Amino acid sequence: MITLENMKFIYQELSTQIQETQAQIEQIQSNRIFNSQNKQNMRLRQRDRWTADEDKLLIQQLQIHGIKGQALFNIPTKSSNQVYYRLRYLKQVYLQQKSVHEHTKYDQTIDLSCFKLFCGDY
Question: Which ranges form a coiled coil (predicted)?
Answer without folding.
Answer: 4-31
